[in-house]
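During the no-cost extension, the postdoctoral fellow (Dr. R.K.) reprocessed legacy sequence entries with the updated structure-token encoder. One reprocessed record is reproduced below for audit purposes.
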Amino acid sequence: MARYTCLFTVATPVDNLQRLLGELLESCKFDIIYQTEDYLMAREIPGGIAFSKLVVVEVLIDRTTATDREVRMNIVIKNEELPLQVDNHCRQMFNVVSDAIAQNRQIQLIEAVAG
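Re-encoded structure tokens follow.
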């Protein structure tokens, strides 16, 4: 199973973050399948890729340390693919989502720590 994680610290109000993340993931061709106040799960929209390579994104928003100026969130991107190559599909989608967060004008990236 391929699995990539990143801890992001962003400068955006916590109340807007979930909506912004939903829009961001949908623009990256993900479908939101589950959502709570501090958790979001999205699945890659099928088509053009093997079912085992479809990627799932989980976002955990840390509301316990959130302030008006910054919020921390942990993102896990995974699929059933064995990561036999460095540049596998899961890694490519991890890069797509990470770049989308970093380049989003409404979500100002303060720090990103990949794991």
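The mean pLDDT is 93. Residues 2-114 form a domain with the TATA-Binding Protein fold (CATH 3.30.310.80). The remaining legacy entries will be reprocessed before the final report is submitted.
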